[in-house]
Amino acid sequence: MSTVGESITNQSGQYMEVKNIVQRLVLPEPGINSEYPLFFHGGKGGTGFDTLKKAYFVHCGATISFDSYFNSFPAHLYDFDNHNVDIVIKASGSFIIQIVMARHGRSWEQLYQSRIELGEGGTESIRLPEMLLDGLIYVEVIAVTDTYVYEVDYSVVGQTHQDVSLTAVITTFKRNDAVQSTGHRMQAYFDANSDLLEKFQLLVIDNGGDTDTIPFEKSKVIKNRNLGGAGGFTRGLMETVDNELSTHVLFMDDDASFFPESLRRTISVLQYSKAENRAVSGAMITEAHKWRMWENGATFDQRCIPLDSGRDLRDFNQVVAMSIGQPRNVENKYAGWWYFCFPVASVKVWPFPFFVRGDDSYFSLANDFDIMTMPGVVAIQEDFFTKQSPLTLYLDMRYHIVHHLTFDNLEIGKKSLRKMMTQFFNRFNNSYHYESAAAICQAIEDVLQGDAFWEQNVDMAERRKQINELTKNEKVQDGLPIDFSKVTHHSPHRNKGRWATLLRRLSFNGHLLPESLQYKKGVALPLDARAIEHDTFLRPHTITLDGATGRGYMCKIDKQAYFANRKRFKGLVSRLEGNYEKLSSQYEESSKTLTAKAVWEERFKSE
User: Fold this and answer.
1) Each residue of 58-99: pLDDT tens digit?
2) Which residues contact 47 (CB under 8 A, 6 or more apart)?
3) Does 511 have pLDDT greater than 70?
4) Residue 394 and residue 462 in contact, taking contact as beta carbons nearer than 8 Å
5) Contact by Cβ (8 Å): 47, 62
6) Any idea of the CA torsion for 336, 339, 341, 346, to the nearest 10 degrees?
């Protein structure tokens, strides 16, 4: 079998063609993702995955179809000219193979059908018809006798458009176990896929001081001052640029699980891209629901808007719609740094020193990347809602304001900016999350300081300490004592009628009303639906709870804290409106000064 970039020659040694394996079969793996319908579809009992053989089985008369999120081939994402596509199947048994191309909103094409018989370890190579491949291609096997499918490789025959090499950068802070696990997984993958090794290397930027080595042969650990994700990833980018390590850089989270096959698919689609600014954004699904899309890329317009959120990846029709139906050039698109691969040559603006939160969206918006997503290139990580706290809300508020003050295409004017901030603040202050509301106020105050704040707080040590000390009631804890006889469950419709909404507005969500008008019971809210204003109305307290773990926290009504936060917020927003034009000019200039490579070099020298 030919490998990536291998020239095929005839018996006389004459050059014939170049063939690259661009995609291989992904197998379910507990701990990463084992939702079978994301890998294959088939009848119950007649098909499945054999854990011991590491192969898919198909009993006589049954059909297995790889029309799935992880195992369909997105031919439409490749810039093919006179290229051919070969499929090599390794299997044992007698079976009928069908190759189908699915297209969104159009008829599907039956590309190939034949009966094949293979002994143990046998392979069959199939060349697809020379036609426009503008859909998702998948293989289907109908077993004539009991059959095992071990591999399905897609290869592109023909010259690549770009030479691509990749430096992956992981920024870590005291998550050595997760980094070691990633290193083991990568080494195992490259042991079995050595053709890719020359194109790949790994940098681990250790912000926490507890990672010295990792078990991957082409890796390097760099100790770094803790300047957050922004500082860690910038350090990796700088190492790549200064030493000319590769054409592309891949930013990856230390706590995100992914199939290393994503690396092959990323390198391959970039090799066959004619756009020099093409970048690949990994999607994200959560640990809680590994069958449901959380974010397939995102846009920023007053808030972060995940694309394709909620799609059921078990349904191939939704996979097709998501992959082919999503417009390629979505305005204000950005990529999360849990998995983002981009060309070094397209970086004109380096990361803003946010520490964390907002650094990824700022980086995408500031640079001219043509960002694409691919089926199967995805990170699986903890739900963002479980990480929410006064500190994360502080960080979120900061970057939302900075983005709108910085980028001309996001300029919405002072009135709309005030409305956005007010909605954000009211949600938490109205629902007894006074610590979060205070943190939001602090974020506005810090943005008002301009460059001086960012440079003096590049490591965020003091501000993180301050907000963490502020957080008492809203700290998620184990074993929260709950008397369920004194709470009612969350309702998405409670207190949302016309008159209830008017009363809530006039009474500042009940904070002006006497205690005698309150319900006797509090309300229990799920962790992913915390701070719900209408359901908090007239409750003496709220309990926010993760039903899976029992972890949570309690908030009680506190009128003094409510009005103190409100007064502070109104004063800060008035200051921002009064200085709006000046601030916009300052932050536009900051996109050149605070982000400059030379400035980052000085920050790293001050370690």
Assistant:
1) 999 999 999 999 999 999 999 999 999 999 999 999 999 999
2) 40, 56, 57, 58, 59, 62, 63, 64
3) yes
4) no
5) yes
6) 20
- Whether the Cβ atoms of residue 546 and residue 382 lie closer than 8 Å to each other: no
pLDDT score of 255 more than 90: no
CB-based contact 63:128 (threshold 8 Å): no
Quick count: other Cβ atoms within 10 Å of Cβ 122?
A: 14
Angstrom distance (rounded) from CA 507 to CA 512: 5
Main-chain phi, psi angles of 248, to 5 degrees: -130, 155
User: The tokens of 294 are what?
Assistant: 């959380």
DSSP 264-325: HHHHHHHHT-S-TTEEEE-EEEESS-TTBEEESSEEESSSEEETTTT-BTT-HHHHHHHHHH
Residue 305: Cβ within 10 Å count: 15
Provide the pLDDT for residue 17: 74
Q: Are 170 and 105 in contact (CB under 8 A)?
A: no
Average pLDDT over residues 160-181: 94
Residue 18, token pair as written in the block: 């170049």
At 473, list the tokens.
């009631």
- Identify the pLDDT of residue 92: 97
CA distance 504 to 525: 19
CA distance 443 to 431: 19
| 301 pLDDT above the threshold of 90 | no
Which residue type occupies 473?
A: N
pLDDT classification of 546: cutoffs 50, 70, 90: confident
Residue 469 has pLDDT above 90, yes or no: yes
What rounded mean pLDDT belongs to the chain? 93
Measure the N-to-C terminal CA separation of the chain; round to a whole number of Å. Answer: 50
pLDDT of residue 374 exceeding 90, the answer is yes
Does position 393 have pLDDT exceeding 70, yes or no? Answer: yes
Provide the sign of the torsion angle of the four alpha carbons 371, 172, 187, 243, taken in this order. Answer: positive
The winner for highest mean pLDDT among 270-274, 475-479, 524-528, 544-548 is: 270-274
Structure tokens at 71: 């195992």
Is the CB of residue 48 less than 8 Å from the CB of residue 56? yes
Nearest CA among 281, 294, 284 for reference residue 330 = 281
Give the global pTM. Answer: 0.92
Give the integer Cα–Cα distance in Å for 140 and 149. Answer: 11
What would the two tokens of residue 27 be?
A: 């197998």
Does pLDDT of 328 surpass 80? no
- Strands 522-526 and 487-489 come out as parallel
B/e letters for 189-216, b = 16+ CB within 10 Å, e = fewer, are bbeebebbeebbbbbbbbbbeebeebeb
Rg value, the chain, Cα: 27
